[in-house]
Design a protein that fits this description.
- The protein is built from 14 helices and six strands.
- The chain is mostly helical and 374 residues long.
- A two-stranded antiparallel sheet has the order 1-2. It has a two-stranded antiparallel ribbon with strand order 3-4. A two-stranded antiparallel sheet has the order 5-6.
- Strand 5 and strand 6 form a beta hairpin.
- The longest helix has 51 residues.
- It is elongated.
């Protein structure tokens, strides 16, 4: 083969190699383009997936879901529980989000959570044991109110009428169900035949947040009973040691609450009642007369004191059959830790200041001195 022929062959091979290189480059480019497109599409899909997982499951939800976080639960099990209950979209995303933000030390307990809560709200709730959400509205229940007065407040704040509220709290099946749910605070004593309303005095005074626009009457009542149970738990040991009941405590405290004014010394009034009970002397407290009458009056007349009713402590010795109102913590504390006195009488003057005495003669002098003209 001549030199020219060899050159031609080499030239043809070079051309073929260039063609192959071009083909390979095209294939590589095509593959790279496909990978890039898949990567971009995949990245967007992943980004969208993560972004959606970080959002509330249902921002408009008003439903609350009870979620139990057992003692000793780790972040993984908590996240799985929240996903199982439908509170979050993805357990892994929640776990990674909490870790990324260095969130830990979550508390065990029973939580009322919602699908509308953000991950930050959920994390804060689980860390503090409280539900961090803006309530739709609140209901403020002051101290010293009767069930009927509470029913009127509930009617003003919700779609629950006063009649519907009272029908619910007087219903025998309701009482049976609630006694089963709150055995430590609701006992057979609330079924005493002389009790006017079984739940009188058992709805704790507080400001209650609600996270749905139209809570049921069951939700409202049980929310208040939850507060009662929580606030009375610290006293259960004392009551057991004294062989007393929650009913006794709330009944006694309700008398102090209704006798109290802004300047009243509850502990000293409690001592007066204890001293009277010790000597089998009637308590003779006017608020029980008004409760027996079932009406509010600016002045209790002497004729009112004679009304024959189990709640009238002028005609019946000892405590009344049950509470005459709800009582706040200060009144409950006063029952548990009364002052140490020998007083048997007290009266409040026109400015609300209390005057205590040991004898009836001194009490009459105080009446003449501070209540002359009444």
């Amino acid at each position: 083969m001549g030199k020219d022929s060899k050159k031609d062959v080499m030239f043809e091979k070079m051309i073929e190699q260039k063609k192959e290189v071009k083909i390979v480059r095209r294939i590589v480019f095509a593959i790279a383009l496909v990978v890039l497109i898949i990567g971009l599409v995949g990245s967007r899909a992943v980004y969208k997936y993560i972004t959606e997982s970080l959002q509330p499951v249902d921002p408009d939800s008003e439903e609350t879901i009870e979620v139990e976080i057992p003692i000793g639960s780790g972040l993984s099990s908590i996240a799985e529980t929240l996903e199982d209950e439908g509170i979050i979209r993805n357990a892994k995303i929640f776990k990674y989000y909490a870790k990324f933000n260095n969130e830990s030390q979550f508390q065990a307990g029973t939580y009322a959570l919602s699908k509308s809560m953000t991950l930050d709200e959920l994390i804060q709730s689980l860390k503090t044991g409280k539900v961090y959400r803006e309530p739709v509205f609140t209901i403020a229940i002051p101290e010293g109110l009767t069930l009927k007065q509470i029913a009127k407040i509930v009617e003003k704040k919700t779609s629950i009428t006063e009649q519907a509220f009272m029908s619910y709290v007087e219903d025998e099946k309701t009482i049976d169900d609630l006694m089963g749910k709150y055995p430590n605070i609701l006992t057979d004593e609330i079924r005493n035949e002389n009790i006017k309303y079984p739940l009188e005095g058992y709805l704790f005074p507080a400001t209650y947040p609600f996270y749905e626009e139209n809570p049921s009457v069951e939700t409202v009542v049980e929310t208040m009973l939850d507060a009662t149970a929580a606030n009375l738990t610290p006293y259960l040991t004392y009551l057991q040691e004294q062989e007393k009941s929650v009913h006794w405590l709330l009944t006694f405290a309700s008398l102090l609450e209704r006798e109290a004014t802004a300047k009243t010394d509850r502990e000293t009034i409690a001592s007066v009642f204890y001293n009277r009970l010790d000597i089998d002397m009637p308590l003779q407290t006017d608020p029980t007369v008004l409760y027996a009458l079932g009406e509010h009056k600016d002045r209790v007349l002497y004729s009112d004191l004679k009304v024959q009713d189990p709640y009238n402590t002028y005609v019946v010795k000892g405590l009344p059959p049950g509470p005459i109102s709800n009582a706040g913590k200060s009144s409950i504390d006063a029952v548990v830790e009364p002052s140490d006195t020998d007083y048997l009488y007290f009266l409040a003057d026109k400015e609300g200041n209390n005057h205590f005495t040991n004898s009836y003669e001194e009490h009459l002098k105080n009446q003449a001195k501070y209540l002359s003209g009444d």
